[in-house]
Amino acid sequence: MDTSQITPGISWRKAGLILIAFFLFVLAIQLLKSGAGAIAPWVKMWAVHNPFNALGFGWLFAYLVMSGSPVAAAALFFFDAGAIDRVEAFMMITGSRLGASLIVLALGFLYVLRGHDERISLRMGLLALLTTFSVQLPALALGYGLLMLRALDELPPTTAFAVFSLIEAVYEPIVAAVNGLLPGAGVFLLGFGALWYSLNLFDNALPSFHLQESAEHEHPHWTTHPLAAFGLGLAVTSVTMSVSVSLSILVPLAVRGYLRRGNVIPYIMGANITTFVDTLATALLLDNPPAFVVVLVQMVSVTLVSLALLFLAYRPFENALLHVTDVIGARRRTLALFLLAIVGIPAALMLIR
Fold first, then answer.
1. Which residue among 30, 91, 182, 291 is the one 20 to 30 A from 251 at the CA level?
2. pLDDT band at 269 (very low <50, low <70, confident <90, very high)
3. What phi and psi, each to the nearest 5 degrees, are found at residue 331?
């Protein structure tokens, strides 16, 4: 028997990668917290003057790094450093969610270049973007109302003094050494890179799941039942801690015939909720209760909107999304206009003063 395996599909090497990824994740939080003060004046002076700028900044930033989680974390550090207020932090996190799904469309383009069906590959990416937009925009309005009413302000966690003391004892010497070698902006950029790398390590350390091709092209239960798909989206993203990863698997599965487009809408909705798990962890490690409340408001808002759509209007919602996806994907000119819009809108938001 191969003793290198802990359980089928999970090796000691991957378990070690998970431990390294966790260590780097916490280290990245400490570095970002230490360096945020140096970046804060730049953010306030050049990037974010109001909530509209914050929304556009988070949106474009997520496009740039092809991931929403590091951008959402950066919003918390800018908030902790005083560069942005809590509404602007909320808006920047929302922007990071709007931009995170672009990787699915980019992957769809890649599959087209490799010779796969353009109709399936690109429209899966379009569907991921449109589903995210359709949930996040109403959630933005709901979350803004909750923030203004301070409805969840009484729910911040109690600080676990022993945990934070242990973190400081382990990481403070490393952070101090880095601060002695790099300027504050360099510390922040190093922390951002470490956070990005740690999330990628988590992804690589997860076991691979290989589906066997079915001669009958049978669809698993989760692809045909909305609530099952919603639950799977919740579960996969809570494990990968990256909506970019959990949504990216949709394109190859669709190309291979495992998925029908309409059946992945609840999966995308579930993924867009538990993608906040790592951002909540970041808020806890910051030991900043208002930052925790900002993330909690975001998560509650997206959950409430998603559940309302699932239980009250799912079929009309599904039909509307599929129709819009077909209209956009039918002609290259329409697709080009859509791409121009999703880049132009956040860019325009950045210009509002």
1. 91
2. very high
3. -130, 145
Taking the C-alpha atoms of residue 235 and residue 231, their distance in angstroms, rounded to an integer, is 6
Q: Within 10 A of 295 (CB to CB), how many other CB atoms are there? A: 25
Q: What is the dihedral of CA 230, 236, 241, 243, to 10 degrees?
A: -60
* Assigned token pair, 69: 């989680």
- Enclosing domain of residue 29: 9-207+222-351
The rounded distance, in Å, linking the Cα atoms of 330 and 229 is 27
pLDDT tens-place string over residues 84-100: 999 999 999 999 999 98
213 found inside a domain: no
Residues 270 and 237: beta-carbon distance below 8 Å: yes
- Whether 302 is covered by a domain: the verdict is yes
Specify if 104 maps to a domain.
yes
Yes or no: say if 254 and 217 are a contact pair by the CB < 8 Å rule: no
> How far is Cα 218 from Cα 108, in angstroms, rounded to an integer?
23
Q: Confirm whether pTM is higher than 0.85.
A: no
Number of domains forming the structure of the chain: 1
Six token digits for residue 16: 């070690």
Q: What is the pLDDT of residues 184-230, one digit of tens each?
A: 888 888 988 888 787 777 666 655 544 444 433 445 555 557 888 88
| The token pair that represents 11 in the structure block | 């090796």
In-domain check, residue 67: yes
